[in-house]
Amino acid sequence: MRFETPTSVDQAVALLAADPEARVLAGGTDLLVRLRAGQIAPSAIIDIKRIREMTVISQEDGGWRIGAAVPSAEMNEHAALKADWPGVVESADLIGSTQIQGRATLAGNLCNASPAADSVPAMMAARATARIAGPDGTRDVAVEGIPTGVGKTSLEKGELVTSIFLPAKPAHSGDAYLRFIPRTEMDIAVVGCGISLTLDDQGKISDARVALGAVAPTVILSQSCADTLIGTAGDDAALDALAAAASAEAKPIDDKRGTIAFRKDVVGVLAKRAAKIAITRAGGKTGGET
Amino acid sequence: MSRIHVTTTINGDETEYLCEAGETLLDVLRDHLDMTGSKEGCGTGDCGACSVVVDGRLVCSCLMLAAEAEGRAVDTIEGMAQGNQLHPLQQKFLEHAALQCGICTPGILVAAKNLLERNPNPSEEEVRYWLAGNLCRCTGYDKIIRAVMDTAADLRGAA
Lengths: 290, 159
Ligand SMILES: Cc1cc2nc3c(=O)[nH]c(=O)nc-3n(C[C@H](O)[C@H](O)[C@H](O)COP(=O)(O)OP(=O)(O)OC[C@H]3O[C@@H](n4cnc5c(N)ncnc54)[C@H](O)[C@@H]3O)c2cc1C
Ligand code: FES
Ligand code: FES
Prior knowledge:
Largest sheet of chain B: 5 strands, mixed
CATH topology of the largest domain in chain A: Uridine Diphospho-n-acetylenolpyruvylglucosamine Reductase, domain 3
Radius of gyration of chain A: 19 Å
Low-confidence stretches of chain B: none
Order of helices and strands of chain A: EHEHEEEHHHHHHEEEEEEEEEHHH
Helix content of chain A: 25-40%
CATH architecture of the largest domain in chain B: Roll
Number of helices of chain A: 11
CATH class of the largest domain in chain B: Alpha Beta
Bound molecules: flavin-adenine dinucleotide, FE2/S2 (inorganic) cluster
CATH superfamily of the largest domain in chain B: Beta-grasp domain
Oligomer: heterodimer
Largest sheet of chain A: 5 strands, antiparallel
CATH topology of the largest domain in chain B: Ubiquitin-like (UB roll)
Radius of gyration of chain B: 16 Å
CATH architecture of the largest domain in chain A: 2-Layer Sandwich
Helix content of chain B: 25-40%
Largest interface: A-B, 28 and 32 residues
Strand content of chain B: 15-25%
Strand content of chain A: 15-25%
Shape of chain B: globular
Mean pLDDT of chain A: 95
Number of domains of chain B: 2
Number of strands of chain B: 5
């Protein structure tokens, strides 16, 4: 196995394109576990942390571009990013321990393609896009277009994610992510839910995005859930409808962490709670309340 | 297969080593550099016994390749005491009996030191969350938390 440290995106693409068995290394918190367990045997490890543009968080068109090598701890220390997208930052802050957060990246969480990845529902709710570089140039893809199954992505040969873009946050908007785990730290989500929504001048929800994690092979971006919120003021009836829609959308499995019935129930509860937080955050901007 | 030559700084000293691409920083610290203070509890990022600080960030050395340390600054438990002079955290851990078998202790000390450098006045909740990735099967954690809180209070008093 070789260890490569490209210093530009072009070099990284060239290395990946030349060698289908090479693997990108960001924080390594998934990759090294799999490598050490003998689950993968790449021909080369391409460390992207020496590519300067991939190590920074920068403002762009009123939104935020987060380099694919930025660890979640750095996002959590970025006050302006956190103020705009608290749900996304909190979701990244739930990944593992302090030690894991010192290394784990959003792009790694996305490309690892686990249905339980914490930041993915929050990114989907936020309409995040991934910038992909490859032999044919650069393209931007909605985050929901990346994972295609457990451990599988739509990335082509020679491609890698160079950054995640969180768009400018519309006025009167709020986002939130909640997950259920048996303890408060250091566990994989049994269920997760990310919500982002926008209020109009009357305090009614004019736009909503709801993403459900760990209840299907890939994170579900649910239009039926969003529809229960849009046009309402997020009153109890709307939240009950949201919970019912989330439970109906969920297609979870039974495993040691939770049964199907449990997950279907909890996803509704989390959706309701996340919606309340998102509404409070959106209203906070207008000085309104829940 | 040619080995990778790495030049890095460990506890302030420039250090060179040769490693395989697949070797972790923990492997090199323990097996090549004879710095066995960092422990391997799990090798999968779950226990924190291998905690070190790299360029100011707390990480698990079992989940970092040794080759990644090129040009970085690594701080390990071996750099904590100054000769025979224990770090205040080490002293408090003794006073509070915050260790039994001691296998978790180096990782917890490294993690707690990094916390206090960032936040000299953490709440108990903040200490507990910060150390949630450091597992201890012996103490029940309470004495560890007391020792860290007590050290923080002392250091604030002394400052
Ligand atoms: C103890 C522990 C606790 C954890 N807890 C959580 C948790 O609570 N929630 C959670 O969601 N996850 C958790 N994880 C999993 C992991 O930390 C996250 O998925 C993390 O975000 C992965 O990011 P990384 O930068 O470390 O990825 P890496 O390990 O570097 O990469 C992951 C995968 O994505 C590929 N990849 C990485 N970056 C790119 C890129 N830019 N372009 C293309 N492919 C790329 C790699 O080749 C690899 O296949 C935990 C892991 C550990 C060890
Ligand atoms: S040995 Fe590294 S976390 Fe357990
Ligand atoms: S003292 Fe034994 S594991 Fe902590």
